[in-house]
Design goal:
There is one protein chain. With 65 residues, the protein is mostly helical. It has three helices and no strands. Helix 2 runs antiparallel to helix 3.
Length: 65
């Protein structure tokens, strides 16, 4: 994932807060979307949940770059 490049840059700039917040937000949104979309759409819902949570994390890190 390309957000790993941003994570390395944030750690290099001594800003681990952005990485921790991004990881927590991705995890929380992924679990919520697994429950909501997974129960309704099955494996496709879980895949969409992963895509959305990863996009949220990448957008957060892109905005803080």
């Amino acid at each position: 994932m390309f957000y790993n490049i941003f994570e390395a840059q944030f750690f290099g700039k001594e800003q681990p807060r952005v990485v921790v917040i991004g990881g927590a937000l991705q995890t929380a949104s992924y679990f919520a979307l697994i429950i909501i979309l997974g129960s309704t759409y099955g494996i496709v819902g879980i895949a969409v949940g992963f895509l959305v949570s990863t996009t949220i994390r990448a957008t957060l890190q892109w905005n803080n770059y």
